[in-house]
Amino acid sequence: MNVQSKPPATPLIQLRGIHKHYGDYHALRGIDLEIRQGEFFSLLGPSGCGKTTLLRTIAGFEQPSSGQLVIDGKDMSGVPPNHRPTNMVFQSYAIFPHLTVAENVGFGLRRDPRPKEQRARAVAEALEMVGLGGYGNRAAHALSGGQRQRVALARALILKPKVLLLDEPLSALDKKLRENMQVELIRLQRNVGITFILVTHDQEEALVMSDRIAVMFEGAIGQMADPETLYRRPNSRRVAEFIGKMNLLPAEVGMEGNRIVVEVAGLGRGAVEPDQAPGGVIEGNSTVGIRPETLSLLFPGETTDRRVAEGVVDEVVYYGDMTYYDVRIPGVEEPLTISMKNLIGRPVLDVGTPTKVAWDERSLVVLSR
Amino acid sequence: MMRGGWLRAYALLYLVFLFAPILLLPLFAFNDASVIAFPLTGFTTHWFQELWTTEALHQALRNSLVIAVLNSLIATLLGVCAARATSGPAFPGKRGILGFIMLPLVLPEIVIAVSLLVVVRQVLDLQLSNVTVILAHVVISLPFSIAILNGAFANLDPAFEEAAQDLGETRWGAFRLVTLPLVFPGIISSLLICFIISLDDFVLAQFLTGANPTLPVYIYGLTRFVKSLPVIMALGTLLVALSITLLVIAEYFRRRGVARAGLKDSGGFL
Protein backbone atom coordinates (compact mmCIF):
# COMPACT_ATOMS: atom_id res chain seq x y z
CA MET A 1 0.00 0.00 0.00
CA ASN A 2 2.98 2.31 0.40
CA VAL A 3 4.11 3.84 -2.83
CA GLN A 4 7.90 3.55 -2.84
CA SER A 5 10.52 4.77 -5.23
CA LYS A 6 12.60 2.06 -6.90
CA PRO A 7 15.01 0.62 -4.36
CA PRO A 8 18.78 0.65 -4.98
CA ALA A 9 20.38 -2.58 -6.16
CA THR A 10 22.16 -3.70 -2.98
CA PRO A 11 19.89 -4.46 -0.03
CA LEU A 12 20.57 -2.63 3.25
CA ILE A 13 20.29 -5.78 5.35
CA GLN A 14 21.22 -9.29 4.29
CA LEU A 15 20.74 -12.40 6.37
CA ARG A 16 22.18 -15.63 5.05
CA GLY A 17 21.45 -18.99 6.62
CA ILE A 18 20.96 -17.65 10.14
CA HIS A 19 20.56 -20.43 12.72
CA LYS A 20 20.16 -20.01 16.45
CA HIS A 21 20.29 -22.82 18.99
CA TYR A 22 19.54 -22.50 22.69
CA GLY A 23 20.81 -25.83 23.95
CA ASP A 24 18.52 -28.36 22.28
CA TYR A 25 16.06 -25.72 21.16
CA HIS A 26 16.39 -24.69 17.51
CA ALA A 27 15.02 -21.13 17.62
CA LEU A 28 15.99 -19.99 14.11
CA ARG A 29 16.24 -22.53 11.30
CA GLY A 30 18.11 -21.03 8.40
CA ILE A 31 16.76 -17.53 7.84
CA ASP A 32 17.55 -15.97 4.44
CA LEU A 33 16.35 -12.42 4.11
CA GLU A 34 17.09 -9.21 2.26
CA ILE A 35 15.64 -5.88 3.34
CA ARG A 36 15.92 -2.79 1.18
CA GLN A 37 16.77 0.76 2.22
CA GLY A 38 13.60 2.67 3.19
CA GLU A 39 11.44 -0.41 3.42
CA PHE A 40 8.81 -1.00 6.12
CA PHE A 41 9.38 -4.69 6.77
CA SER A 42 7.43 -6.84 9.22
CA LEU A 43 8.23 -10.12 10.92
CA LEU A 44 4.85 -11.69 11.60
CA GLY A 45 4.09 -14.92 13.41
CA PRO A 46 2.58 -16.57 16.48
CA SER A 47 4.42 -16.33 19.79
CA GLY A 48 7.48 -18.56 19.93
CA CYS A 49 8.03 -18.49 16.16
CA GLY A 50 11.44 -16.81 16.53
CA LYS A 51 10.52 -13.35 15.25
CA THR A 52 11.78 -11.54 18.34
CA THR A 53 14.95 -13.66 18.41
CA LEU A 54 15.56 -12.65 14.80
CA LEU A 55 15.04 -8.97 15.62
CA ARG A 56 17.38 -9.22 18.60
CA THR A 57 19.94 -10.90 16.39
CA ILE A 58 19.83 -7.93 14.03
CA ALA A 59 20.14 -5.56 17.02
CA GLY A 60 23.13 -7.51 18.34
CA PHE A 61 21.61 -8.79 21.59
CA GLU A 62 21.76 -12.37 20.31
CA GLN A 63 24.62 -13.99 18.44
CA PRO A 64 23.57 -16.36 15.66
CA SER A 65 24.88 -19.93 16.07
CA SER A 66 25.71 -19.90 12.37
CA GLY A 67 25.04 -17.76 9.32
CA GLN A 68 25.90 -14.25 8.26
CA LEU A 69 24.34 -10.86 8.96
CA VAL A 70 25.36 -7.89 6.83
CA ILE A 71 24.09 -4.38 7.48
CA ASP A 72 24.98 -1.61 5.06
CA GLY A 73 27.74 -3.71 3.51
CA LYS A 74 29.43 -4.54 6.83
CA ASP A 75 29.54 -7.98 8.40
CA MET A 76 28.06 -7.69 11.88
CA SER A 77 29.60 -10.76 13.52
CA GLY A 78 31.24 -9.72 16.77
CA VAL A 79 29.91 -6.16 16.53
CA PRO A 80 28.19 -5.22 19.84
CA PRO A 81 24.80 -3.43 19.85
CA ASN A 82 26.38 -0.07 20.65
CA HIS A 83 28.40 -0.16 17.43
CA ARG A 84 25.59 -1.21 15.09
CA PRO A 85 23.70 1.27 12.90
CA THR A 86 20.45 0.04 14.43
CA ASN A 87 18.23 1.37 17.20
CA MET A 88 15.41 -0.40 18.90
CA VAL A 89 12.01 0.38 20.38
CA PHE A 90 11.53 -2.25 23.08
CA GLN A 91 8.24 -3.95 23.80
CA SER A 92 8.29 -2.55 27.35
CA TYR A 93 9.67 0.73 25.90
CA ALA A 94 12.40 0.59 28.59
CA ILE A 95 12.04 4.30 29.37
CA PHE A 96 14.63 5.06 32.07
CA PRO A 97 12.46 5.94 35.09
CA HIS A 98 15.09 8.01 36.89
CA LEU A 99 15.51 10.46 34.02
CA THR A 100 13.28 13.16 32.57
CA VAL A 101 11.72 12.84 29.12
CA ALA A 102 14.44 15.05 27.60
CA GLU A 103 17.23 13.11 29.34
CA ASN A 104 15.74 9.88 28.01
CA VAL A 105 15.55 11.17 24.45
CA GLY A 106 19.03 12.70 24.68
CA PHE A 107 20.58 9.57 26.21
CA GLY A 108 22.12 8.45 22.92
CA LEU A 109 23.73 11.86 22.40
CA ARG A 110 26.02 11.50 25.43
CA ARG A 111 28.94 10.75 23.13
CA ASP A 112 27.91 13.36 20.59
CA PRO A 113 30.68 15.97 20.20
CA ARG A 114 28.25 18.79 19.40
CA PRO A 115 27.88 21.62 21.96
CA LYS A 116 25.18 21.37 24.58
CA GLU A 117 22.76 23.82 22.96
CA GLN A 118 22.76 21.94 19.67
CA ARG A 119 22.11 18.66 21.41
CA ALA A 120 19.26 20.24 23.36
CA ARG A 121 17.82 21.49 20.07
CA ALA A 122 18.08 17.98 18.58
CA VAL A 123 16.17 16.61 21.59
CA ALA A 124 13.47 19.27 21.22
CA GLU A 125 13.14 18.51 17.50
CA ALA A 126 12.88 14.77 18.15
CA LEU A 127 10.14 15.37 20.72
CA GLU A 128 8.38 17.69 18.28
CA MET A 129 8.54 14.99 15.61
CA VAL A 130 6.65 12.47 17.78
CA GLY A 131 4.13 15.06 18.95
CA LEU A 132 5.55 15.57 22.45
CA GLY A 133 6.88 19.11 22.05
CA GLY A 134 7.17 20.78 25.47
CA TYR A 135 7.19 17.51 27.42
CA GLY A 136 10.97 17.56 27.94
CA ASN A 137 10.97 18.38 31.65
CA ARG A 138 8.34 15.81 32.62
CA ALA A 139 9.37 12.85 34.77
CA ALA A 140 9.47 9.73 32.62
CA HIS A 141 7.54 7.54 35.05
CA ALA A 142 4.56 9.89 34.96
CA LEU A 143 3.83 9.29 31.25
CA SER A 144 0.92 7.36 29.77
CA GLY A 145 1.45 4.24 27.64
CA GLY A 146 1.08 6.12 24.36
CA GLN A 147 3.45 8.86 25.51
CA ARG A 148 6.08 6.34 26.61
CA GLN A 149 5.89 4.80 23.18
CA ARG A 150 6.52 8.19 21.57
CA VAL A 151 9.46 8.86 23.89
CA ALA A 152 10.92 5.46 22.98
CA LEU A 153 10.54 6.35 19.28
CA ALA A 154 12.15 9.76 19.67
CA ARG A 155 15.00 8.29 21.72
CA ALA A 156 15.73 5.69 19.03
CA LEU A 157 15.32 8.01 16.04
CA ILE A 158 17.47 10.85 17.41
CA LEU A 159 20.59 8.84 16.53
CA LYS A 160 19.46 8.67 12.89
CA PRO A 161 19.96 4.90 12.65
CA LYS A 162 20.07 3.10 9.31
CA VAL A 163 17.48 0.69 10.67
CA LEU A 164 14.83 1.13 13.34
CA LEU A 165 13.82 -2.11 15.04
CA LEU A 166 10.37 -2.23 16.66
CA ASP A 167 9.53 -5.12 19.00
CA GLU A 168 5.72 -5.34 19.29
CA PRO A 169 5.61 -1.58 19.90
CA LEU A 170 1.82 -1.30 19.87
CA SER A 171 0.81 -4.39 21.81
CA ALA A 172 0.57 -2.55 25.15
CA LEU A 173 -1.82 0.10 23.81
CA ASP A 174 -5.61 -0.09 23.67
CA LYS A 175 -7.34 -0.66 20.31
CA LYS A 176 -8.16 2.93 19.42
CA LEU A 177 -4.73 4.30 20.35
CA ARG A 178 -3.12 1.40 18.52
CA GLU A 179 -4.92 2.22 15.29
CA ASN A 180 -3.92 5.89 15.58
CA MET A 181 -0.31 4.96 16.22
CA GLN A 182 -0.26 2.64 13.20
CA VAL A 183 -1.10 5.54 10.92
CA GLU A 184 1.36 7.80 12.72
CA LEU A 185 4.15 5.26 12.45
CA ILE A 186 3.60 4.88 8.69
CA ARG A 187 3.68 8.67 8.28
CA LEU A 188 6.79 8.96 10.45
CA GLN A 189 8.55 6.25 8.49
CA ARG A 190 7.85 8.02 5.19
CA ASN A 191 9.07 11.33 6.59
CA VAL A 192 12.35 10.08 8.02
CA GLY A 193 12.99 7.54 5.24
CA ILE A 194 14.59 5.11 7.68
CA THR A 195 14.20 1.35 7.20
CA PHE A 196 11.75 -0.01 9.79
CA ILE A 197 11.66 -3.64 10.88
CA LEU A 198 8.55 -4.42 12.90
CA VAL A 199 7.92 -7.55 14.96
CA THR A 200 4.25 -8.30 15.51
CA HIS A 201 1.85 -11.16 16.12
CA ASP A 202 -1.05 -9.02 14.88
CA GLN A 203 -1.67 -9.88 11.21
CA GLU A 204 -3.91 -6.85 10.69
CA GLU A 205 -1.19 -4.53 12.00
CA ALA A 206 1.34 -6.12 9.66
CA LEU A 207 -0.99 -5.82 6.65
CA VAL A 208 -1.78 -2.17 7.37
CA MET A 209 1.76 -0.98 7.95
CA SER A 210 4.19 -3.03 5.91
CA ASP A 211 5.69 -2.86 2.45
CA ARG A 212 6.67 -6.48 2.85
CA ILE A 213 5.99 -9.17 5.43
CA ALA A 214 7.83 -12.33 6.38
CA VAL A 215 5.46 -14.81 8.04
CA MET A 216 7.39 -17.02 10.44
CA PHE A 217 6.51 -20.40 11.93
CA GLU A 218 8.76 -22.46 14.23
CA GLY A 219 11.95 -20.58 13.46
CA ALA A 220 11.58 -20.50 9.68
CA ILE A 221 10.01 -18.14 7.16
CA GLY A 222 6.77 -19.60 5.77
CA GLN A 223 6.18 -16.93 3.16
CA MET A 224 7.63 -13.54 2.34
CA ALA A 225 5.63 -11.13 0.18
CA ASP A 226 3.84 -7.80 0.03
CA PRO A 227 0.57 -7.62 2.05
CA GLU A 228 -1.73 -8.09 -0.94
CA THR A 229 0.04 -11.18 -2.27
CA LEU A 230 0.21 -12.61 1.21
CA TYR A 231 -3.49 -12.14 1.70
CA ARG A 232 -4.70 -13.13 -1.77
CA ARG A 233 -2.15 -15.82 -2.60
CA PRO A 234 -0.89 -17.55 0.56
CA ASN A 235 1.45 -20.42 -0.24
CA SER A 236 0.35 -22.79 2.50
CA ARG A 237 -2.57 -23.64 4.74
CA ARG A 238 -0.73 -22.23 7.78
CA VAL A 239 -0.16 -18.84 6.21
CA ALA A 240 -3.72 -18.79 4.86
CA GLU A 241 -5.17 -19.47 8.29
CA PHE A 242 -2.83 -17.11 10.15
CA ILE A 243 -3.69 -14.13 7.97
CA GLY A 244 -7.35 -13.16 7.96
CA LYS A 245 -10.20 -15.64 7.72
CA MET A 246 -9.94 -18.34 5.06
CA ASN A 247 -12.46 -21.03 4.13
CA LEU A 248 -10.63 -24.30 3.56
CA LEU A 249 -12.33 -26.92 1.39
CA PRO A 250 -11.18 -30.41 0.50
CA ALA A 251 -10.45 -30.69 -3.25
CA GLU A 252 -9.11 -33.01 -5.96
CA VAL A 253 -6.30 -31.26 -7.82
CA GLY A 254 -5.10 -32.47 -11.19
CA MET A 255 -3.24 -31.28 -14.28
CA GLU A 256 -4.88 -31.40 -17.68
CA GLY A 257 -2.08 -30.45 -20.03
CA ASN A 258 -0.94 -27.04 -18.72
CA ARG A 259 -4.21 -26.32 -16.94
CA ILE A 260 -4.74 -26.86 -13.23
CA VAL A 261 -8.15 -28.40 -12.65
CA VAL A 262 -9.79 -28.58 -9.24
CA GLU A 263 -12.83 -30.50 -8.07
CA VAL A 264 -13.89 -28.59 -4.95
CA ALA A 265 -16.17 -30.30 -2.43
CA GLY A 266 -19.59 -28.64 -2.42
CA LEU A 267 -18.71 -26.03 -5.06
CA GLY A 268 -17.91 -28.15 -8.11
CA ARG A 269 -15.32 -28.33 -10.86
CA GLY A 270 -13.18 -25.45 -12.06
CA ALA A 271 -9.88 -24.45 -13.60
CA VAL A 272 -7.34 -22.13 -11.99
CA GLU A 273 -4.31 -20.17 -13.22
CA PRO A 274 -0.74 -21.01 -12.10
CA ASP A 275 -0.62 -17.87 -9.88
CA GLN A 276 -3.47 -19.39 -7.85
CA ALA A 277 -1.18 -22.14 -6.68
CA PRO A 278 1.75 -20.12 -5.21
CA GLY A 279 2.84 -23.05 -3.08
CA GLY A 280 2.99 -25.41 -6.05
CA VAL A 281 0.63 -28.17 -7.11
CA ILE A 282 0.57 -31.67 -5.68
CA GLU A 283 -1.88 -33.76 -7.67
CA GLY A 284 -4.54 -35.72 -5.82
CA ASN A 285 -6.30 -34.98 -2.54
CA SER A 286 -5.60 -31.43 -1.54
CA THR A 287 -7.11 -28.28 -0.03
CA VAL A 288 -8.46 -25.16 -1.68
CA GLY A 289 -8.93 -21.83 0.08
CA ILE A 290 -11.42 -19.08 -0.58
CA ARG A 291 -11.79 -15.78 1.32
CA PRO A 292 -15.18 -14.89 2.91
CA GLU A 293 -15.43 -11.54 1.07
CA THR A 294 -14.92 -13.12 -2.37
CA LEU A 295 -18.06 -15.17 -1.80
CA SER A 296 -21.50 -13.60 -1.81
CA LEU A 297 -24.96 -14.60 -0.73
CA LEU A 298 -27.78 -14.18 -3.22
CA PHE A 299 -30.57 -12.35 -1.44
CA PRO A 300 -34.17 -13.12 -2.45
CA GLY A 301 -34.81 -11.86 -5.99
CA GLU A 302 -31.12 -11.47 -6.94
CA THR A 303 -29.58 -13.32 -9.86
CA THR A 304 -25.96 -13.72 -11.01
CA ASP A 305 -23.90 -15.14 -13.85
CA ARG A 306 -21.23 -16.31 -11.39
CA ARG A 307 -20.94 -19.93 -10.27
CA VAL A 308 -23.55 -20.80 -7.63
CA ALA A 309 -23.86 -23.38 -4.83
CA GLU A 310 -26.97 -23.93 -2.73
CA GLY A 311 -26.98 -24.05 1.04
CA VAL A 312 -28.67 -23.10 4.31
CA VAL A 313 -27.75 -20.26 6.70
CA ASP A 314 -26.25 -21.89 9.81
CA GLU A 315 -25.06 -18.90 11.84
CA VAL A 316 -25.30 -15.11 11.62
CA VAL A 317 -22.82 -12.71 13.25
CA TYR A 318 -23.75 -9.03 12.89
CA TYR A 319 -20.84 -6.53 13.05
CA GLY A 320 -22.66 -3.32 12.11
CA ASP A 321 -20.89 -2.58 8.85
CA MET A 322 -20.69 -6.26 7.92
CA THR A 323 -22.59 -9.45 8.57
CA TYR A 324 -20.75 -12.78 8.68
CA TYR A 325 -22.83 -15.77 7.61
CA ASP A 326 -21.91 -19.40 8.09
CA VAL A 327 -23.63 -21.34 5.33
CA ARG A 328 -23.90 -25.11 5.34
CA ILE A 329 -23.48 -26.66 1.88
CA PRO A 330 -24.31 -30.29 1.17
CA GLY A 331 -21.18 -32.38 0.76
CA VAL A 332 -18.94 -30.09 2.88
CA GLU A 333 -18.27 -30.79 6.53
CA GLU A 334 -17.37 -27.25 7.65
CA PRO A 335 -19.82 -24.45 6.86
CA LEU A 336 -18.57 -21.71 4.52
CA THR A 337 -18.06 -18.28 6.07
CA ILE A 338 -19.24 -15.41 3.90
CA SER A 339 -18.96 -11.72 4.74
CA MET A 340 -21.53 -9.33 3.30
CA LYS A 341 -21.59 -5.53 3.47
CA ASN A 342 -24.77 -4.26 5.12
CA LEU A 343 -25.86 -2.05 2.22
CA ILE A 344 -29.07 -0.01 2.38
CA GLY A 345 -32.13 -2.20 1.77
CA ARG A 346 -30.20 -5.42 2.21
CA PRO A 347 -31.80 -7.65 4.85
CA VAL A 348 -29.99 -9.70 7.46
CA LEU A 349 -31.00 -13.31 6.83
CA ASP A 350 -32.19 -15.57 9.63
CA VAL A 351 -30.64 -18.86 10.64
CA GLY A 352 -32.23 -21.68 8.65
CA THR A 353 -32.94 -19.62 5.51
CA PRO A 354 -32.16 -21.55 2.32
CA THR A 355 -29.79 -19.49 0.21
CA LYS A 356 -27.39 -19.47 -2.73
CA VAL A 357 -23.65 -18.74 -2.59
CA ALA A 358 -21.97 -17.13 -5.60
CA TRP A 359 -18.23 -17.74 -6.20
CA ASP A 360 -15.54 -17.37 -8.87
CA GLU A 361 -12.74 -19.66 -10.00
CA ARG A 362 -10.30 -16.72 -9.80
CA SER A 363 -10.81 -16.45 -6.02
CA LEU A 364 -9.61 -19.98 -5.32
CA VAL A 365 -6.15 -20.67 -3.93
CA VAL A 366 -4.69 -24.15 -4.17
CA LEU A 367 -3.07 -24.99 -0.82
CA SER A 368 -1.26 -28.25 -1.34
CA ARG A 369 0.98 -27.78 1.71
CA MET B 1 -15.31 -8.20 66.88
CA MET B 2 -14.35 -10.21 69.94
CA ARG B 3 -11.76 -12.15 68.05
CA GLY B 4 -10.24 -8.96 66.65
CA GLY B 5 -10.03 -7.57 70.19
CA TRP B 6 -8.14 -10.57 71.54
CA LEU B 7 -5.77 -10.50 68.62
CA ARG B 8 -5.05 -6.84 69.22
CA ALA B 9 -4.39 -7.42 72.92
CA TYR B 10 -2.09 -10.31 72.10
CA ALA B 11 -0.14 -8.23 69.61
CA LEU B 12 0.20 -5.42 72.11
CA LEU B 13 1.45 -7.72 74.88
CA TYR B 14 3.89 -9.26 72.46
CA LEU B 15 5.35 -5.87 71.59
CA VAL B 16 5.59 -4.86 75.27
CA PHE B 17 7.40 -8.09 76.06
CA LEU B 18 9.82 -7.49 73.18
CA PHE B 19 10.61 -3.86 73.73
CA ALA B 20 10.02 -3.08 77.41
CA PRO B 21 13.49 -4.29 78.42
CA ILE B 22 14.99 -1.83 75.97
CA LEU B 23 13.08 0.97 77.66
CA LEU B 24 14.90 0.09 80.90
CA LEU B 25 18.18 1.15 79.31
CA PRO B 26 17.53 4.90 79.18
CA LEU B 27 15.70 4.66 82.52
CA PHE B 28 18.74 3.45 84.41
CA ALA B 29 21.18 5.35 82.25
CA PHE B 30 19.81 8.58 83.74
CA ASN B 31 19.28 7.16 87.26
CA ASP B 32 21.50 8.57 89.99
CA ALA B 33 22.55 5.25 91.58
CA SER B 34 25.28 2.72 90.85
CA VAL B 35 22.89 -0.17 91.58
CA ILE B 36 20.44 -1.26 88.89
CA ALA B 37 17.26 -1.49 90.95
CA PHE B 38 13.96 0.23 91.60
CA PRO B 39 12.99 2.65 93.04
CA LEU B 40 14.78 5.28 90.94
CA THR B 41 16.73 7.75 93.04
CA GLY B 42 17.21 10.81 90.87
CA PHE B 43 18.33 12.21 87.53
CA THR B 44 21.95 12.37 86.43
CA THR B 45 24.05 12.59 83.28
CA HIS B 46 27.06 11.34 85.22
CA TRP B 47 27.17 7.97 83.47
CA PHE B 48 27.29 9.64 80.06
CA GLN B 49 30.17 11.83 81.26
CA GLU B 50 32.02 8.73 82.34
CA LEU B 51 31.55 7.29 78.85
CA TRP B 52 33.13 10.41 77.48
CA THR B 53 36.29 9.99 79.55
CA THR B 54 36.93 6.24 79.32
CA GLU B 55 39.83 5.80 76.89
CA ALA B 56 39.52 2.00 76.53
CA LEU B 57 35.92 2.42 75.48
CA HIS B 58 36.87 4.92 72.80
CA GLN B 59 39.43 2.48 71.50
CA ALA B 60 36.79 -0.27 71.31
CA LEU B 61 34.32 2.07 69.61
CA ARG B 62 36.89 3.13 66.99
CA ASN B 63 37.68 -0.52 66.41
CA SER B 64 34.03 -1.42 65.97
CA LEU B 65 33.42 1.49 63.61
CA VAL B 66 36.37 0.59 61.37
CA ILE B 67 35.22 -3.03 61.22
CA ALA B 68 31.59 -2.06 60.59
CA VAL B 69 32.45 0.35 57.78
CA LEU B 70 34.79 -2.05 55.99
CA ASN B 71 32.32 -4.91 56.47
CA SER B 72 29.41 -2.94 55.01
CA LEU B 73 31.50 -1.88 52.00
CA ILE B 74 32.77 -5.40 51.25
CA ALA B 75 29.44 -7.17 51.89
CA THR B 76 27.50 -4.66 49.79
CA LEU B 77 29.97 -4.85 46.91
CA LEU B 78 29.72 -8.65 46.91
CA GLY B 79 25.95 -8.34 47.34
CA VAL B 80 25.69 -6.14 44.25
CA CYS B 81 27.64 -8.67 42.20
CA ALA B 82 25.54 -11.59 43.45
CA ALA B 83 22.20 -9.81 43.07
CA ARG B 84 23.04 -8.71 39.55
CA ALA B 85 24.14 -12.19 38.56
CA THR B 86 21.05 -13.85 39.99
CA SER B 87 18.60 -11.29 38.58
CA GLY B 88 19.77 -12.05 35.04
CA PRO B 89 19.17 -15.15 32.95
CA ALA B 90 19.48 -18.53 34.66
CA PHE B 91 22.86 -20.23 34.81
CA PRO B 92 23.80 -23.74 35.97
CA GLY B 93 23.82 -24.10 39.74
CA LYS B 94 22.21 -20.69 40.33
CA ARG B 95 19.85 -21.90 43.05
CA GLY B 96 22.52 -23.98 44.72
CA ILE B 97 25.01 -21.12 44.87
CA LEU B 98 22.42 -18.68 46.17
CA GLY B 99 21.30 -21.16 48.81
CA PHE B 100 24.89 -21.62 49.89
CA ILE B 101 25.41 -17.86 50.28
CA MET B 102 22.18 -17.54 52.27
CA LEU B 103 23.06 -20.42 54.61
CA PRO B 104 24.58 -18.30 57.44
CA LEU B 105 21.11 -16.81 57.86
CA VAL B 106 19.83 -20.06 59.38
CA LEU B 107 23.02 -21.41 61.00
CA PRO B 108 23.50 -20.69 64.72
CA GLU B 109 26.10 -17.94 65.03
CA ILE B 110 28.05 -19.94 67.56
CA VAL B 111 28.50 -22.71 64.99
CA ILE B 112 29.76 -20.22 62.42
CA ALA B 113 32.04 -18.67 65.02
CA VAL B 114 33.62 -21.94 66.11
CA SER B 115 34.09 -23.24 62.58
CA LEU B 116 35.63 -19.94 61.43
CA LEU B 117 37.97 -20.00 64.42
CA VAL B 118 39.09 -23.52 63.48
CA VAL B 119 39.61 -22.48 59.86
CA VAL B 120 41.52 -19.32 60.74
CA ARG B 121 43.77 -20.82 63.42
CA GLN B 122 44.22 -24.46 62.43
CA VAL B 123 43.81 -24.46 58.66
CA LEU B 124 45.05 -21.05 57.53
CA ASP B 125 47.24 -20.45 60.58
CA LEU B 126 46.43 -16.73 60.71
CA GLN B 127 46.67 -14.41 63.72
CA LEU B 128 43.33 -13.21 65.09
CA SER B 129 42.86 -9.54 64.29
CA ASN B 130 40.35 -7.04 62.97
CA VAL B 131 40.78 -8.66 59.57
CA THR B 132 39.42 -11.99 60.82
CA VAL B 133 36.48 -10.21 62.46
CA ILE B 134 35.71 -8.39 59.21
CA LEU B 135 35.80 -11.64 57.23
CA ALA B 136 33.42 -13.27 59.72
CA HIS B 137 31.07 -10.28 59.60
CA VAL B 138 31.00 -10.38 55.81
CA VAL B 139 29.87 -14.00 56.01
CA ILE B 140 26.84 -13.14 58.16
CA SER B 141 26.10 -9.75 56.48
CA LEU B 142 26.09 -11.05 52.91
CA PRO B 143 22.71 -12.83 53.10
CA PHE B 144 21.08 -9.60 54.28
CA SER B 145 22.83 -7.54 51.63
CA ILE B 146 21.70 -9.96 48.92
CA ALA B 147 18.13 -10.07 50.23
CA ILE B 148 17.90 -6.28 50.08
CA LEU B 149 19.66 -5.91 46.73
CA ASN B 150 17.77 -8.79 45.10
CA GLY B 151 14.64 -6.77 45.71
CA ALA B 152 16.21 -3.72 44.09
CA PHE B 153 17.49 -5.66 41.05
CA ALA B 154 14.30 -7.70 40.63
CA ASN B 155 12.38 -4.44 40.13
CA LEU B 156 14.46 -3.59 37.06
CA ASP B 157 13.27 -4.16 33.50
CA PRO B 158 16.00 -6.28 31.83
CA ALA B 159 15.48 -4.11 28.75
CA PHE B 160 16.90 -1.05 30.59
CA GLU B 161 20.53 -2.07 30.15
CA GLU B 162 19.87 -3.33 26.64
CA ALA B 163 18.28 -0.02 25.72
CA ALA B 164 21.30 1.86 27.06
CA GLN B 165 23.65 -0.36 25.03
CA ASP B 166 21.45 0.06 21.99
CA LEU B 167 21.83 3.83 22.41
CA GLY B 168 25.61 3.62 22.26
CA GLU B 169 26.79 2.74 25.77
CA THR B 170 29.16 -0.10 26.61
CA ARG B 171 27.99 -2.81 29.01
CA TRP B 172 29.76 -1.06 31.87
CA GLY B 173 28.35 2.30 30.81
CA ALA B 174 24.85 0.87 30.73
CA PHE B 175 25.32 -0.54 34.23
CA ARG B 176 26.80 2.70 35.57
CA LEU B 177 24.29 5.09 33.96
CA VAL B 178 21.06 3.13 34.29
CA THR B 179 21.24 0.18 36.68
CA LEU B 180 23.39 1.78 39.36
CA PRO B 181 21.24 4.90 39.84
CA LEU B 182 18.11 2.74 39.96
CA VAL B 183 19.46 0.35 42.60
CA PHE B 184 21.33 3.09 44.51
CA PRO B 185 18.71 3.35 47.28
CA GLY B 186 19.04 -0.42 47.74
CA ILE B 187 22.82 -0.05 48.01
CA ILE B 188 22.49 2.62 50.72
CA SER B 189 20.00 0.42 52.51
CA SER B 190 22.36 -2.56 52.33
CA LEU B 191 25.34 -0.48 53.55
CA LEU B 192 23.39 0.63 56.61
CA ILE B 193 22.01 -2.81 57.48
CA CYS B 194 25.44 -4.47 57.14
CA PHE B 195 26.93 -1.68 59.25
CA ILE B 196 24.45 -2.37 62.04
CA ILE B 197 24.89 -6.15 61.83
CA SER B 198 28.63 -5.73 62.31
CA LEU B 199 28.27 -3.15 65.05
CA ASP B 200 25.80 -5.35 66.97
CA ASP B 201 27.64 -8.64 66.64
CA PHE B 202 29.03 -10.13 69.80
CA VAL B 203 29.43 -13.88 69.24
CA LEU B 204 31.68 -13.81 66.17
CA ALA B 205 33.77 -10.93 67.51
CA GLN B 206 34.21 -12.65 70.87
CA PHE B 207 35.74 -15.66 69.15
CA LEU B 208 37.70 -13.97 66.41
CA THR B 209 38.82 -10.64 67.80
CA GLY B 210 42.52 -10.02 68.27
CA ALA B 211 44.25 -7.80 70.81
CA ASN B 212 41.70 -4.97 70.47
CA PRO B 213 38.13 -5.88 71.42
CA THR B 214 35.12 -4.54 69.54
CA LEU B 215 32.54 -2.55 71.46
CA PRO B 216 30.16 -5.44 72.28
CA VAL B 217 33.11 -7.55 73.48
CA TYR B 218 34.34 -4.65 75.59
CA ILE B 219 30.88 -4.18 77.09
CA TYR B 220 30.71 -7.87 77.93
CA GLY B 221 34.02 -7.48 79.74
CA LEU B 222 32.60 -4.59 81.76
CA THR B 223 29.63 -6.60 83.02
CA ARG B 224 31.94 -8.39 85.40
CA PHE B 225 32.23 -5.16 87.42
CA VAL B 226 28.91 -4.32 89.07
CA LYS B 227 29.74 -0.64 89.45
CA SER B 228 30.19 -0.15 85.73
CA LEU B 229 26.66 -1.35 84.95
CA PRO B 230 25.11 2.15 84.76
CA VAL B 231 27.83 3.11 82.28
CA ILE B 232 26.80 0.15 80.13
CA MET B 233 23.21 1.35 80.36
CA ALA B 234 24.26 4.74 79.09
CA LEU B 235 26.27 3.20 76.28
CA GLY B 236 23.37 0.90 75.43
CA THR B 237 21.03 3.87 75.23
CA LEU B 238 23.26 5.51 72.66
CA LEU B 239 23.63 2.31 70.64
CA VAL B 240 19.88 1.67 70.54
CA ALA B 241 19.28 5.25 69.39
CA LEU B 242 21.93 4.83 66.67
CA SER B 243 20.51 1.48 65.49
CA ILE B 244 16.95 2.80 65.24
CA THR B 245 18.13 5.89 63.35
CA LEU B 246 20.10 3.80 60.85
CA LEU B 247 17.21 1.36 60.32
CA VAL B 248 14.80 4.19 59.65
CA ILE B 249 17.21 5.71 57.13
CA ALA B 250 17.70 2.32 55.46
CA GLU B 251 13.95 1.76 55.12
CA TYR B 252 13.50 5.30 53.80
CA PHE B 253 16.02 4.62 51.01
CA ARG B 254 14.46 1.26 50.18
CA ARG B 255 11.02 2.84 49.78
CA ARG B 256 12.42 5.68 47.74
CA GLY B 257 14.02 3.10 45.46
CA VAL B 258 10.70 1.38 44.91
CA ALA B 259 8.99 4.69 44.22
CA ARG B 260 11.74 5.79 41.87
CA ALA B 261 11.36 2.68 39.74
CA GLY B 262 7.66 3.57 39.57
CA LEU B 263 6.56 0.37 41.30
CA LYS B 264 4.14 -0.61 44.03
CA ASP B 265 5.62 -1.47 47.42
CA SER B 266 5.24 -5.19 47.97
CA GLY B 267 6.34 -5.04 51.59
CA GLY B 268 10.02 -4.77 52.11
CA PHE B 269 12.85 -6.40 53.91
CA LEU B 270 11.88 -4.66 57.14
Automatic annotation (TrEMBL), chain A:
The keyword Nucleotide-binding applies. Keywords: ATP-binding, Nucleotide-binding, Transport. GO terms for cellular component: ATP-binding cassette (ABC) transporter complex. The keyword Nucleotide-binding applies. SUPFAM superfamilies: MOP-like, P-loop containing nucleoside triphosphate hydrolases. Residues 13-243 form the ABC transporter domain. This is Putrescine transport ATP-binding protein PotA. GO terms for biological process: putrescine transport. One of its GO terms (molecular function) is ATP hydrolysis activity.
